[in-house]
Here is the input.
Amino acid sequence: MTLPPWAVAALGLALLGLGAWLWRAGVERRRLRRRLEAAARELENLQHSFSRFAPDEIIEEIIASGVAPRGERKEVTALFADLVGFTALSESIEPDVLLRILNGHFERMSRAITDHRGYVSTFLGDGILALFGALQPNPWQANDAAHAALAMRRELEAYNKELAAEGLPTIAIGVGIHRGSGVAGLVGSRDLVQFALVGRTVNLAARVQDLTRSCDGDVLVTTAVREDLDPRFALRPMPPAEVRGVEGPVATWAVDRFEGAP
Here is the structure.
């Protein structure tokens, strides 16, 4: 069957129009794909950046709901570690060397904490606040915190050997651990937020850490922690001491070692 000239011309125009439409559709699809890929990269970058301030579980909840999750009251073990005499040290060495020592310390201490199911909540100057049991229920949180503290001690010993080999000053830490209730959630302003524990538990852990300056022990735990610890932890009772913000003396124990396999 032979088509008349006008039909051939109409069909040609239709095919040209279809080809142009397909070409535009292909261009639009490629443009849309590039936009989606760019948006995915931006979301990944934002999630990676935000993960420096909040744990993955909280980030996923915010992404899913579009709002900040509500705070929850939880039983948490707080570990507070601080460098001993670091303020005086910071005044005697160059700033870039100071930051290199401090960042190397934070890297090793953070690894020891996360390896024992802890979450590094924040860095406070030369101090570290870590939480155990804040993200998920953890009946072994006291043991995890004590194991983390001993791992921090070992990491620091290895790090000090590296510093000494470079002719740099070595460092020392004091660690305080306390278990109690608090409200866990995101706190901060529109410009900066972080996942934190609000309550007396963190304050008492910090006060107990202060006691390491005046007693024979670099890792101290409170009665609330001692009651939940594995009996294979070797503990030494310290003289009860007054701490700011707490009525009556606070009993603490020095954690010397763990006698057995974790």
The chain has seven helices and eight strands. Residues 13 and 19 are 10 Å apart (CA to CA).
